[in-house]
Structure to design on (233 residues):
């Protein structure tokens, strides 16, 4: 309805602007990061600590630029069958490398179920990564995340990501998918906006409700493939 339309126009506007600006920002940002990393190798003590902050913030700028580019082109390309179980487990592994995700880490993550989605594989992985990352961040130290994959007989599929975190306020819930809405001190607020744009570009969507683990549950739904897609596989 109306809110959705406004949201779409906002995204399209941001996208056009971003595509132009991102290109210009990316190069100098790359140079800044290159020099910071060079300086870090020679620095010690407090200076090294300060340079680490510079590096972190520059990486955050890169994340924002990348997120804006993703909003500009959520993707319209050939679809391929993606094994959801493998995709989810890959995402968990990647996050485990970057953060302290269980079993060795502090958040335990379980993946259940099987299914195949027709999607642009890298884009779909990006959505799964965003949802699992948010869930792990919400669950926090000692928390739990559960990923449930389900497939219908006709080929439609769903991936539900639940966490044991605090859930969200009704204000947050109303604004989750807005670009730049974040309640995290160093969040970009682009993860869910990009994810929703990608889901919609695939003819699907992301819904939120209260999950079985006490926190939120984000469900990605993707439609069944068309006859042509299946025939082409
Ligand atoms: P970011 O993670 O950078 O804040 P996102 O777009 O991924 O941006 O998420 C936007 C906001 O939605 C988060 O800051 C948080 O307030 C809320 N949110 C997302 N996932 C969850 C979750 N699993 N539980 C509670 N709140 C969530
Ligand atoms: Mg996020």
């Amino acid at each position: 309805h109306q809110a959705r339309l406004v949201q779409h126009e906002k995204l399209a506007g941001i996208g056009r602007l971003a595509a132009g600006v991102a290109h210009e920002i990316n190069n100098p940002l790359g140079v800044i990061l290159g020099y910071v990393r060079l300086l870090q190798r020679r620095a010690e003590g407090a200076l090294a600590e300060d340079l680490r902050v510079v590096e972190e913030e520059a990486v955050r700028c890169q994340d924002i630029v990348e997120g804006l580019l993703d909003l500009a082109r959520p993707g319209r390309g050939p679809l391929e069958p993606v094994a959801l179980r493998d995709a989810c487990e890959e995402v968990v592994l990647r996050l485990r490398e970057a953060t302290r995700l269980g079993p060795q880490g502090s958040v335990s993550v379980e993946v259940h179920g099987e299914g195949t989605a027709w999607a642009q594989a890298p884009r779909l992985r990006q959505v799964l990564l965003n949802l699992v990352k948010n869930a792990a961040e919400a669950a926090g130290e000692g928390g739990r995340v559960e990923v449930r994959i389900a497939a219908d007989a006709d080929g439609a599929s769903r991936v539900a990501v639940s966490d044991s975190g605090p859930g969200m306020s009704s204000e947050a819930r109303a604004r989750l998918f807005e670009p730049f809405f974040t309640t995290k001190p160093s969040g970009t607020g682009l993860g869910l906006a990009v994810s929703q744009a990608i889901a919609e570009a695939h003819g699907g969507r992301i819904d939120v409700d209260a999950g079985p683990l006490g926190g939120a549950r984000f469900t990605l739904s993707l439609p069944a493939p068309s006859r042509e897609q299946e025939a082409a596989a």
User: Anything to note?
Assistant: The mean pLDDT is 89. The first strand starts at residue 80 and ends at 83. DSSP finds seven helices and seven strands in the chain. The two ends are 35 Å apart (CA to CA).
